[in-house]
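Input chain follows. Return structure tokens only.
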Amino acid sequence: MNMGRTLAHSPAMLDAYLHFLGALEHGQLSPLLQTLVSGTVAQEMGGEYMLAAIVELGSRAGLSPKQLEDSRHARSDDQKTQRALQFAAKVIQEHGHLPALEVESLRRAGFSDEQIVELIALIAINVWRNLFNLIAQTSVDFPPVRLDQPLATVVVQR
């Protein structure tokens, strides 16, 4: 994975990144929700490297093309998931300046305080991943996905 190779220029940062991801793996948010949120953030930030990675890895993990496409637009057939995706999109759009009502809407959707903290952390690591790859101009080593390209036109390798 080109991101890992580029990040390895700083062993300390690679280690920090892997530990952060490891902590999220032991949290309360499902891997599928994490992938969908990552898709929302990648689309909102214009991160084609992460978008391509998420589409490829999400497909391998069993997410449908519709689920992945919907995540790019903060949509889901599941209301709780949709609320998380909408929250992630608003965090990016508003640079984190959200009214308390937004966090309360997560609670009303069924998220615990622990899950809300993890959701914020997930959004943060995705902001970092997208910024890193945009700035480093990491070459895409997955089937490319353009920001304006519907997934129906992407060939995903399984």
